Amino acid sequence: MTDTRTAPTLVVGLGCQRGCPVSTLRALLDQALQAHKIGLHQIKALASIDLKREEPGLIELAEQLGLEVMYFSSAELASYQTQLSHHSDIAFERTGCYGVAESAALALAEHLTQAPVKLLISRQKYAQATFALAGAA
Question: How many domains does the chain have?
Fold first, then answer.
C-alpha cells in the first residue's frame, strides 16, 4: 500500500475542442508526462469543465487509464484565475473561465488534498486539446 504522505497527489486537467479524439488526448498526456519524467501510475485522477461531461474522447481516455474524471463548473474554475500561466479570451468566451486545463487541475488537486496546490506542469497545447498537471504546493 502506498503511503499517501510520501506519494504526491498528481492530477491532470484537460481541455479539448468538441469531438477531440481520444488519440489526441492520449498523445498530449503521454508526451507531457514523458517530458517531465512522470509515470502514468503517479496520476490519481483527471479533471475538466462540466461542459465536457459528455465528451467521448475524455470518457474513453479515463476508461483506458482506469481513472476517474471530475468535472467542475466555470464558476468553480474561475476562482483559480490568478494562478493560471495563460489567460485565453477564447476559452473565457466559450466556457466562462480563462483556462480549462490549468483551472481544472488546480481545482481537483485542491479537492483531493485539502491543502494549497500549484501547477507542476503549466498549460501544454496540442492539436485540439490542452493539458496541465497540478499537485500539492
Answer: 1
User: What is the CATH number for 75?
Assistant: 3.30.420.180
Give domain status of residue 10, yes or no: no
Q: Tens digits of per-residue pLDDT, 20-52?
A: 999 999 999 999 999 999 999 999 999 999 999
| Alpha carbon distance 60, 92 (integer Å) | 26
Three cell numbers, residue 67: 481513472
Can you tell me the distance from the alpha carbon of 106 to that of 127, in angstroms, rounded to the nearest whole number? 22
DSSP 44-100: EEEEEEGGGTT-HHHHHHHHHHT--EEEE-HHHHHTTGGG-S---HHHHHHHSSS-H
In a domain, 103, yes or no: yes
Q: Give CA–CA dist 130/137, Å, rounded.
A: 22
Give, in order, the Cα–Cα distances in Å from 28 to each of 79, 97, 119: 26, 21, 17
Stated pTM of the model: 0.92
